[in-house]
């Protein structure tokens, strides 16, 4: 296949995934009935369940199952000084460029990366400008090559507080969850029993005024992050060893908890240009999306940069006392940072399967929105409906199962396949005599008879496998 054919096929695949997501209630365009709002999305019933499962698995694996990580939930609206201290007010900017012909706006580095197959993130503005003009890069929308100069565009969302007058009314929607952990570092130390090394985790929304080329929920202006700041004393903890430990955990989570195929994953070390000046090492776990290998999850050794900045800007002492040496130390951090929505897009892309005419989402039962669907063979036979309802209600006590009695069995299978429901349970006339149901496996389409009283055990084993 030529490069162009591969690109067309991948574009086509992405379009099919996006169409399935709309059709089956995973992802809808934001504000759709008013013509849409760029780079925003809403999540439908199946998408909400899927995202909740991913988020809960993340929290369980990285917080609940560990005794060295605790959680916080910081405010989304936050003091402007937090973002001055963190460097976001001065430096959290994308280089953008506008097409003079059709007025479309692009991130300069992404425009170059997509056109020249070359990493451009972090390059100085003049270099980006030169690359676009020297290579006569064409506008992906209108095909012309008439560009404005590349210029900076700050991504923070300012908000004005009604209850405060003057300059102090300016606050920001948080641009990352990370700062919530740094500003509460002393609060957590003072209110819990945690001691170094330990992590503070947070999961919640962040906001960035992004310029994006689409690709569904890959990059949006409002998104959910799952971040951990793992604090340690660099004199007592070998950072390289800790860094490797976190890499292993991230890999384990993605492959074993989310069931992602390892061939679609790779590590990439940040180049000197793209790595933040305070970071000693940054690596991205990348996933092979239909539009190429892209960052899924970042792992950065941020040293003591953030705590020292907040100490400087707030005037508050951020050091802690080491009870063994009686010395005051400013801990360093390693930060694994992921987007929950991006995990979801990866899960959907990885699960999308076509076999002949059949389209299904090969989702791991752990993340699947519904663990099973229960059907009466016919919706107008009371004895079948009553029996199926009883099974549905019983299973629902333990699992998120869904009821479906529309159309014929074939249509129900097709719709559950596209939602990624691992098992379909049908109550038929034989059930009334033998107390067994037909259980159909999504991936193989194989069917087996299982006794009603064994269904709970069957599903438990499959889901917790
Ligand atoms: N505290 C560090 C930090 O926020 P980041 O690389 O900017 O680092 C971490 O973001 C992760 O958050 C990314 O790897 C990605 O998964 C997700 N993410 C970042 N920006 C996003 C956006 N605009 N839309 C969706 N997910 C995003």
Please give a structural write-up:
This protein has 465 residues and is of the alpha+beta class. The chain folds into 2 domains: 44-92 and 155-350, BirA Bifunctional Protein, domain 2 (2-Layer Sandwich), CATH 3.30.930; 370-464, 3-Layer(aba) Sandwich (Rossmann fold). The chain is 36% helix and 27% strand. The chain has 15 helices and 24 strands. It has helices spanning 3-23, 45-64, 80-86, 88-91, 108-116, 125-134, 178-183, 185-191, 239-257, 305-314, 340-351, 382-396, 409-419, 429-434, 455-463, and strands at residues 27-29, 41-43, 69-71, 77-79, 93-98, 105-107, 151-154, 157-160, 170-173, 198-207, 222-232, 265-269, 281-289, 292-303, 320-321, 328-329, 332-339, 352-355, 358-361, 372-376, 401-403, 423-427, 436-441, 447-451. The strands form 7 sheets. It has a 7-stranded mixed beta sheet. The chain has a 5-stranded mixed beta sheet with strand order 21-20-22-23-24, sandwiched between helices. A 3-stranded antiparallel beta sheet has the order 4-9-8. Helix 2 crosses helix 11. It starts with a helix and ends with a helix. The mean pLDDT is 95.
